[in-house]
Specification:
With 257 residues, this protein is mainly α. It has 10 helices and no strands. The N and C termini lie far apart (53 Å). It is a multi-pass membrane protein.
């Protein structure tokens, strides 16, 4: 258990340092769940739980000053809970959502005190043209978050599923229900943001075509992708456009969505 807790700690640090490595998406639930399954010796369950949690946080993204729930701790603890106790995947979702919200709120509270102190120190170094001091404050802020949250995540795993469940049971049911509803809205917001960026009058028909194929023909995602590839080839090779035409045309943004 101690060795697994140490591995969970290192895995959590890796997830929290996602931005440090150029936002490589290693903090996503589908990646964290797979790695937890690898650490705990049940890769198949880890992938399944990670994929389910990925659907919960599919549209979660940081927009302005609004931060999404902490996916790393929720994914790790939720996946490990299912693997250790052999519970259902739905249990992981019910456990991961409140934990992720609590961890994010904890870090937000610490940011109110800790990060402004580091920022004030960085401003002092900036006035002194001390570039190394500014870099040092930046690294302290990044690694302090990773080490603290990773420590709490590994501690939750080490204490065991019963302790985690007891802690979650303290949360009032109406708060838990509110969190679940909020997490259900987040993917819809994410999809709406994506649709607003890529859909206009010329591309909306393809969106509705995919929806109709799924709704009425019950096609899978792979089947929709295959249809899309064929349709793309038809439009590309049979529209009469010459590949030698290199004239740049003015693009008018007629997005009405």
């Amino acid at each position: 258990m101690l060795t697994q807790s140490l591995l969970i700690f290192l895995l959590a640090i890796l997830g929290y340092l996602n931005s440090f490595f150029g936002s490589s998406m290693i903090s996503r639930p589908i990646v964290m769940g797979m790695l937890v399954g690898l650490v705990l010796g049940d890769l198949t369950t880890g992938i399944k739980v990670g994929a389910s949690l990925e659907l919960v946080w599919l549209g979660a993204m940081a927009i302005g000053a609004s931060n999404p729930p902490d996916m790393v701790s929720g994914s790790i603890i939720g996946t490990s809970y299912v693997i250790v106790t052999h519970s259902s995947i739905a249990t992981a979702v019910a456990l991961a959502v409140p934990i992720s919200m609590l961890m994010q709120m904890l870090w937000n509270l610490l940011m109110i005190v800790w990060v402004p102190l580091l920022a004030a120190k960085a401003d002092k170094y900036a006035n002194e043209a001390n570039y190394r001091g500014i870099d040092r404050m930046h690294y302290i802020a990044v690694f302090s978050q990773a080490i603290l949250l990773a420590g709490l995540t590994s501690a939750g795993f080490f204490l065991g599923s019963k302790a985690i469940q007891s802690f979650v049971n303290i949360i009032p049911s109406f708060v838990n229900s509110g969190l679940n509803y909020a997490m259900g809205i987040i993917p819809a917001i994410g999809f709406a943001l994506l649709v607003r960026m890529i859909v206009n009058k010329k591309t909306a028909c393809f969106l509705f075509l995919g929806f109709l194929l799924v709704a009425y023909l019950k096609l899978s995602v792979l089947g929709i992708t295959a249809f899309a590839c064929v349709l793309t080839a038809i439009l590309l090779f049979n529209t009469g456009h010459s590949s030698s035409n290199n004239q740049v045309q003015e693009v008018i943004d007629d997005n009405e969505f």
